[in-house]
């Protein structure tokens, strides 16, 4: 690896003497590192604030769970949230739905219209049924009428 970096430096110095100091593997690594550090400096405060806000919100929710009545209402609220999220997913009303794959109601519809119908069409409903068996079934279902 050291030899490769050395030969890269020599190549750049020989062929591009005016700009060789600003190019090459080491400069690329330094530039990428600086970009990453700038990105971290920009996003870290926002992420930290969101994390602390979430922590505070969850701690406040935990404080409300002091009595059994509050625990029941909290769990009921969670179940309602899950139920609403499920219904929204099936109905296609979620804002965070995947753009790369079918989910929820769209996936269910695809399965019913493509896979289920295709498999249903392959079933022979009269397989192993003779006219005599069909006649017996009809007579048996009619009872004594």
Automatic annotation (TrEMBL):
Residues 1-144 form the Dynamin stalk domain. GO terms for cellular component: cytoplasm; membrane; microtubule. One of its GO terms (molecular function) is GTPase activity. InterPro entries: Dynamin, Dynamin_stalk. This is Dynamin stalk domain-containing protein.
């Amino acid at each position: 690896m050291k030899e490769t970096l050395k030969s890269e430096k020599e190549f750049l110095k020989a062929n591009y003497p005016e700009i060789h100091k600003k190019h090459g593997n080491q400069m690329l690594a330094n530039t990428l590192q600086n970009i990453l550090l700038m990105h971290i400096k920009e996003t870290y405060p926002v992420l930290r604030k969101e994390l602390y806000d979430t922590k505070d919100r969850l701690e406040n929710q935990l404080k409300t769970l002091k009595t059994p009545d509050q625990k029941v209402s909290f769990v009921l609220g969670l179940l309602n949230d899950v139920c609403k999220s499920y219904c929204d997913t099936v109905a296609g009303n979620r804002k965070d739905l995947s753009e790369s794959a079918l989910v929820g109601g769209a996936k269910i519809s695809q399965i019913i219209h493509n896979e289920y119908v295709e498999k249903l069409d392959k079933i022979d409903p009269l397989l192993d049924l003779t006219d005599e068996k069909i006649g017996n079934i009809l007579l048996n279902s009619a009872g004594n009428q």
